[in-house]
Amino acid sequence: MKNLKMNNEDHQPREDSLSHTNLKRRSFLKFTGATLATSALLATACNKNKDGFPDMEDGVYMGKGDVAILNYAYILEQLEAAFYTKIAESPYGEISDLENSLLVDIRDHEIAHREFFKLALGDNAIPDIEVDFSSINFSNRDNVLAAAKAFEDLGVSAYNGAGQLIQQPEYLLLAGKIASVEARHAALIRDLVRNGTFADDEVVDANGLEISKSPSDVLTAAAPFIKTKINARDLPTY
Amino acid sequence: MNVFKVIKDIENADLEIYERLNPRRMVIRTISSFGSKIALSSLPFVVSGLLRKAYGQELPQKIVDVLNFALTLEYLEAEFYTKALAANGLITNTTAKDAITVIRDHENQHVDFLKSALGAKAVAKPKFDFTASGTFSDVFSNYDTFLAIANALEDTGVRAYKGQAGELMENDNILRYALNIHSVEARHAAHIRQMRRARGGVAANLKPWITGSNDTGISAVDPIYANEDNKIQADIDITTLNGINGKISTGAATESFDEPLSKDAVLEIAQLFIVS
Asked: Is the confidence metric ipTM above 0.95 for this complex?
């Protein structure tokens, strides 16, 4: 992982970038699966500029190139790990032993991913992010599983969509190793919500391809759950 | 809908393809008349040979190779589920039938997608023997055998696509399409594993994710899970990382990262089910 340190020499802000432009251009909440988001939450997630879109110029700088992509994955894994940690701390009342053990498994996978990225990124790792799960009722199974489904589907679409932006084959392979595990999570969670929906047409198109998302779309969808301001200025996107 | 985009990508890599549209039909005929006699591992070579003859130059070989490799696997999966659903009395439960139908439809869509992407360069469908020369003789009469093979095939698919991603890096769209198939295979694998768990027996403790190496309870499929128990990622031993109660367990370390399989290893596995 030496390359990570070498690739991140430029920490200086720049006035404009593709990612920022794209974030502005896109509608802020495209992720229809995230039913929990409210505009009130958005206000706490990011400062808004005069267009009403999040201002990503300030905040925690993700780096650029592959470092930014790995930090992007690190953000998503922090979010997921925090979410499942909270579930395991206070499981909803009617949780079965099997369901609990599967969710604890997922928690451990997400923690493994998070800690892996943190160590691999070293000095280039962004600080711990602060999450906001105030829109999720952790004592309600439907609510928790709906959020889990949104996070897992988003995670898969994020890894799938980011693959083409990765420069180093080694990192592409790592992303692939994690992506399929996230897809396994997503399938399980969906089956817990409703058996048989593991790969339905919400996530798989008519060609049998999973719907992928660009980093700017994913960060926009995740923004309601992240308090920390993220500067995605140099994050590759499309 | 995206098929045209893929074709466009291949056109971009092979700008003269339009001039070659006429010889294309001839190539298809030649390949299919050859198809049944060609050993799978030599297919990419034979195809490129025929194409070189027809087109007078090499096509983007990496793309053709990977997509044909994927197509062969998708042929295998599509026919497997098609036969299973057609087999009398094999899948009797409606919920199970619905799930297998979803999976079969995806595999057929993958076949169509890859064939469209490859056009004249698509390999012909091999002839399959899902009993693997008698090893799984009741594959279409015993529901548990069927599910076990489905489990193995889906996990193979996940490993196969993962192993080829690096070969597709030059082409953003094709890489993305491959990744988008890869995760669908993983979703299938997770569901099949849950279906098996519900049956109990050797699969009573099976999880949607792979624990250790071969966790399926079927030793005949050991090669499919070779090195799946790797716990070192980018020189980091995952079991040295902090979990909730102490370090990340070995089980969780192996579950949290799926491993790739080389093309040769996948072809060797696929060969078990290919007659010719």
From this structure: no
